[in-house]
Amino acid sequence: MAIINKGFGARRRQHDDRIPPGQYLTNDFPVLSAGPTPSISLSEWTLGIEVPGRQARRWTWDEFMALPQEDITVDIHCVTAWSKLGTSWRGVSLDVLLGEDVDPDGFVMAHSYGGYTTNVPLEDVLDGKAWIAHTFDGEPLDPEHGGPARLLIPHLYFWKSAKWVEHLKVMDSDVPGFWETNGYHNHGDPWKEERYW
After folding, report:
1. Which of 33, 42, 140, 192 could form a disulfide with 61 if both were Cys (CB 3.0 to 4.6 A apart)?
2. Which of 24-38, 63-77, 104-118, 163-177 has the lowest mean pLDDT?
3. Which pLDDT tens digit goes with each residue over 9-54?
4. Distance of CA 115 to the CA centre of its chain
5. Is residue 169 within 8 Å of residue 175, measured between CB atoms?
6. DSSP letters along 122-170, please?
7. What is the pLDDT of residues 60-82, one digit of tens each?
8. What are phi and psi of 21, to 5 degrees?
9. Mind listing the domains of the chain with CATH numbers?
10. Nearest in space to 101 (alpha carbons), one of 27, 39, 26, 49
11. Where would I find the Oxidoreductase molybdopterin-binding domain in this sequence (predicted)?
């Protein structure tokens, strides 16, 4: 006898070229987290960037909001098999935050308020592929969805888009993050179904 949990499969798959293999389409925005939702006031929120050979940077909320902003419309895909199409976000590109002289052969570790981490190759966050997003569907990002700000890397499974991002550390070599050390795939491409090791 199969055990089926709502939101984790047993859904009829829709044929749509925008939906990766093994995914189903949802109009909801399911909330899945590894722990409790942190409460971060905008007056205390900061975003830090560490790049080898450079002085570390840190922005307050007001400084972050003064950076060049972009509106982004993308499809998102969760490792638990749901996909949501045409989602609308606003945020700051990692190209702006990391600068032009970052070696794309490196890696970045996202660190979140609450202790969550996830690792991503730099080639997956540069050239207009990733943002720190603060707005979803025209409204400030809800804490349950990673507000006040989260990483947004839409071409990878959504666990790579770390909620409640606090700082990014650029590294020369790869180090697994939270879910990657607990059995999830190190890269997470939904089109290749890179769900687990």
Report:
1. 42
2. 24-38
3. 444 445 688 999 999 999 888 787 667 889 999 999 999 999 998 8
4. 15
5. no
6. GGGTTTTT-EEEEEETTEEPPGGGTTT-EEE-TTS-GGGS-TTEEEEEE
7. 999 999 999 999 999 999 999 99
8. -55, 140
9. 24-29+64-192 (3.90.420.10)
10. 49
11. 35-179
Residue 150 CA to residue 76 CA, distance in Å, equals: 14
Q: How far is CA 59 from CA 34, 43, 46, 66, 145, in A?
A: 26, 11, 5, 10, 21
Tell me the residue type at 183. G
Site of tokens 């399911």: 30
> Residues 134, 4: contact at Cβ < 8 Å?
no
Stretch (H or E) spanning 181: helix 178-181
Integer Cα distance of 118 and 100 in angstroms: 23
